[in-house]
Amino acid sequence: MSSTANNQSSQVENFNADVVEQVDITSYGLVTAAYWGFTLTDGALRMLVLLYFYRLGYSPLEVAALFVLYEFFGIVTNFIGGWIGSRFGLKLTLFSGLGIQIVALSMLAVLPTTWPQWVAIAYVMASQSLSGIAKDLTKMSSKSAIKLVVPPNAEGTLFKWVAILTGSKNALKGVGFFLGSTLLTTVGFSYSLWIMVVGLGIVLALSTLFLKRDMGKTKDKVPFRELFSKTPAINALSAARLFLFGARDVWFVVGLPLYMETVLGWSFVAIGTFFAVWVIGYGIVQGAAPNLFNRQDGITPDGATSQIWVFVLTIVTATIATLIEFNWQVSWVIILGLGIFGLVFAVNSSIHSYLVLNYTDSDKVALNVGFYYMANAGGRLLGTITSGLLYQAFGLTGCLWGAVICLTLTWLISFNLPRRGEALKTAQG
Question: Do residues 45 and 196 make contact, with C-beta atoms less than 8 angstroms apart?
Fold first, then answer.
């Protein structure tokens, strides 16, 4: 039994050594830079579509419907994208993501204003479905690359790199929110989209020239049935991730920005600035999350850590919902309360992003990361649909109580995440 375990460990270490030799930091840096460029356009596009079509007279539910296929095809893409990345390399998935996003932006830029509303909704949903595919192809490529350049058994380093990438990505998405609202105010909807098409085209051209061909490609062909073969730890973490992101997007996607515009009377730029600052702060906290844990003593997050932080986030969200329910200093509660929500949520998200890589081996990283982000996209879809429904029926407080329910489910699921000493066994077993 011990000899078998040693042989398996030796095989994993040899595989990891081969991968590190094949993939250098420059390749990882190029993938990350491309992901950053994509993230700017993704954040800007979200704000453009949300504010532009709501101002045209679309209801909250109709606005939410515009993003349904974006999230749905994110689920589909993550499900098969990991298999594609493992079989053909991360370069293919990255370039496909960038190219598809350029097509999606171009579609919206030429949207005729004279079309009937139902036709326009169908067209925008189609372009958003392409954007959802593009987003998750690029995200899966970048997140998977981290596992390939970090030495085996370097959990502290892995946590740090994951936190830096995720934090910087979210900070740039916040900049994208500000960029989108500012461009909408200054140059209008169509010209904003063409500017982003040009910028993303430059990113794609540079990536094509300099990125190595076989990054992330496994030596052995990965059978399609591997998509359905997951460890209990990956399954539990993915389920927790689904409800964690459902808790965020149930108020974040539709309810809060529309509440700011219609109830608080904020301008497009003010709304975009708030979301930019929120997401940038969220990203900074994600990047700094490893400093909350004593890595010098080898302490990194485990299932119990995740459970504690989810419980704290649940209490924060319930407090915010209660204060708004009683109409107590609503503007300040939104600004400060949701700021606190963002900080605690960032720590939760950073822990999850570390655990998914800690629970998987390098030869299955793209498959498991794809499966995990399929659940992430499922949570966004859940949050997007319920955000429009709850806001239209119960207002912002309804959205926040929906978030409390999602967080309670996340907390309960977190009981199934491996504790310290169990994670490595689960990942290798």
Answer: yes
